[in-house]
Amino acid sequence: ETPWTVRTPRRGTHFFYRSVPGLRNAVKAHRGWDVRAGGNGYVVGFGSVVDGREYELIGEATLDLPPFDPAWLPPIPAEPLSETLSSRVAELRTRQLSTDIRDLGAYIRTIPSIQGQRGSDACFRVACILRDAGLTAEEALAYMLEWNRRCAIPPWSVAELRKKVRDSFSKLERRVM
Predict the structure, then answer these.
(1) Among candidate residues 166, 156, 168, 151, the one with its CA nearest the CA of residue 79
(2) H helix or E strand, kind and range, residue 153
(3) Could you report the per-residue pLDDT of 83-110, keeping only the tens digit for each?
(4) Is omega for the bond preceding 154 within 30 degrees of 0, making it cis?
(5) CB 115 within 8 A of CB 41
(6) In b/e form, how buried is each residue of 139-174, taking b as 16+ CB within 10 angstroms?
(7) For residues 47 and 57, is the Cβ–Cβ distance under 8 A?
């Protein structure tokens, strides 16, 4: 229970709680819940209008919020990076790529992907940069997994990253034809 509750235009609900130390962002952490915490990310509040539809306060807007209890969520495991991909990233760091960018990993880490701030476009841009550097789709995914942990708020799932890479290569194929 929390007094500050907001109904979204798509009939979802945002529940507001006081943050607690150690709480971090999570996507679909439990029962499809997303968590925004630690000063990273945001939640659209009541009175906001997106695509002509309003977010509606159904509780009471108050600063006296109950604390969020991390025990409500199971531990959030990190998505595993396969040994093959880990070794490919190490190998790629020593290979000359077809780009003027000296440190590809450092360069893509300058591109944040923030939900609600064209984060999807930024993620696709990173995939295209990696593709244009001459990486294979699997090599691009390895770089994107590392970039995702540092630069995406909230982080993308491995499946979503695979799709971005696949889409970037598909776009290249359409341009060539």
Answers:
(1) 156
(2) strand 152-153
(3) 555 565 556 555 555 556 778 888 898 9
(4) yes
(5) yes
(6) bbbbbbbbbbeebbbbbbebebbbebbeebbeeeee
(7) yes
